[in-house]
Amino acid sequence: MQGQGNSRCVPVSLCLKHRVPVSRNVYLALIHYPVYDKHKAIVATSITNFDIHDISRAAKTYEVAHYFLVTPLKSQQELGRRIIRHWNEGLGGRYNPSRQVAMGKITVVDSLEMAKQEIFGKWQARPVLVATGAKIQEGFHEKLVTFQQLRTDLQKNLDTPYLILFGTGYGLAEAIYKETDLILEPIRGVADYNHLSVRSAVAIILDRLFGDR
Ligand code: SAM
Hints:
Helix content is 44%, strand content 15%. By secondary structure, the protein is α/β, with parallel strands linked by helices. The strands form 2 sheets. It has a 7-stranded parallel β-sheet with strand order 5-4-1-8-6-9-7, with helices on both faces. Helix 2 (49-61) packs parallel to helix 9 (198-210). The structure holds S-adenosylmethionine.
């Protein structure tokens, strides 16, 4: 990827430069409440260090506007902010500057509502909410969009903010699917096994929406 003089082999920064306009209006939210636990009860999950790091790095790689870590639990908010501060201001950033760059894209917020308000403050427009999930959501077929449809919409609507929602625990609660405008078709692998980590799902989805074709 680092070679020059070959159109299939351009520096990564050059590819990114071309992608920036396409994803600059796109936000990610990792929802820790309301989500399901394994008994289908609505719970607030704990934040995960890996989700902070790996999704921030994917967010930066695909130059999305911002990544919101959504949790109403104060102790979890404090923990999340402490981890982010360590990389933004503390020893972590000096030790690993590229990680610091990625961590510039993440903030912790109380609720989905708060993320929406922050986006509204920047764009003077409410974001189009796009939910994700491992399964087709029964009862919401009219909201279903394919990767290709969403990719095309995003290329056309550069002045409209989009907020893509990802779940934790056993997935987003029905209330979230009710609220969203669109539901992205699930990623299908080749096996019946369908248990991607959210970090893998984010990376695959960002690449299908913004990656080279
Ligand atoms: N504790 C889990 C982990 O290992 O990351 C969290 C699982 S959580 C249910 C996974 C989230 O990733 C889903 O809510 C959805 O946002 C996304 N996801 C997982 N599999 C997916 C798929 N096949 N298609 C689309 N999104 C998927």
